[in-house]
TrEMBL record:
Keywords: Coiled coil. This is Uncharacterized protein. Pfam families: HR1_TOCA. It comes from Medioppia subpectinata. Coiled coil: none annotated. Residues 171-238 form the REM-1 domain. SUPFAM superfamilies: BAR/IMD domain-like (SSF103657), HR1 repeat (SSF46585). Signal peptide: none annotated. Residues 1-83 form the F-BAR domain. Residues 90-126, 209-238 are annotated as: Disordered. The keyword Coiled coil applies. GO terms for biological process: signal transduction.
Length: 238
């Protein structure tokens, strides 16, 4: 019995020693080698990332330099005086300052009505009304009042809509109104010049048709000439 136990113990001891030798000689070194390989690959990735990052930054630097040069050039061409001049030219109203308020002599007797009773506040009321109208005239407040009336008149009669269709820019300050009207005149003049050129072309076409009937019927141009004449007449009216 003791011999069998010794034999079994010897076998297990031998297997344990073999496993221990394999653990220290093969398995553990293999795991360490795998960890070493993984760490080397990680460091290689970091190395590649740093190299590519530096290379990309080196390529981008010239572009950044050009952008900065453009910013510097744009800053150099800024002209504060010219900018403010353009703003003033665009938004100046052209309104004249109001006249001095006249002196109201309250010591003078107030005018009496037909029944002999003094009309209280009539002079001051008329005066304040005239001053208010003169003060508001040609100002932004007057423009707001006019626009407000136009908003409330949306659902009114068609007459207001017809009047609004003919835009005379009356709600704008004098200087801005002058610019708008001048631009409108130039636009109409350009359109009239174009229609005149079209009319000349149609006249030449009709003349060519009259000289050579094989090219076309002269009467076919009459409709276009009539329409062109109506357009030119409308532009003249405007």
């Amino acid at each position: 019995m003791s011999d069998e136990c010794k034999t079994e113990y010897a076998n297990h001891l031998q297997k344990s020693n073999e496993l221990q030798r394999r653990h220290y000689a093969e398995l553990m070194p293999k795991i360490f080698n795998q960890l070493q390989d993984m760490e080397e690959r990680r460091e290689a990735c970091i190395q590649n990332f740093m190299r590519q990052s530096a290379h990309i930054h080196r390529q981008v630097f010239p572009i950044i330099d050009k952008c900065l040069e453009g910013v510097i050039k744009a800053a150099e061409i800024i002209d504060p005086k010219e900018d403010t001049r353009q703003v003033i030219e665009r938004y100046k109203s052209g309104n004249m300052p109001p006249e001095d308020i006249p002196f109201d002599d309250l010591s003078n007797p107030r005018p009496e009505s037909e029944n002999g009773i003094p009309s209280r506040g009539s002079t001051s009321l008329n005066y304040s009304t005239s001053i208010k109208s003169e003060t508001l005239r040609g100002t932004l407040s007057a423009a707001r009042f006019k626009k407000r009336g136009g908003i409330f008149g949306i659902f009114g009669s068609n007459k207001s809509n017809v009047d609004d269709s003919k835009d005379d820019y009356a709600d704008l300050p004098p200087n801005q109104r002058r610019k708008k009207i001048q631009a409108k005149i130039e636009q109409i003049q350009n359109q009239f010049t174009q229609e005149t050129a079209v009319r000349d072309g149609l006249m030449k076409m009709r003349q060519a048709y009259e000289q050579n009937s094989a090219l076309g019927d002269p009467n076919s141009v009459e409709g276009q000439l009539t329409e062109n004449g109506q357009k030119m007449e409308k532009l003249k009216t405007e």
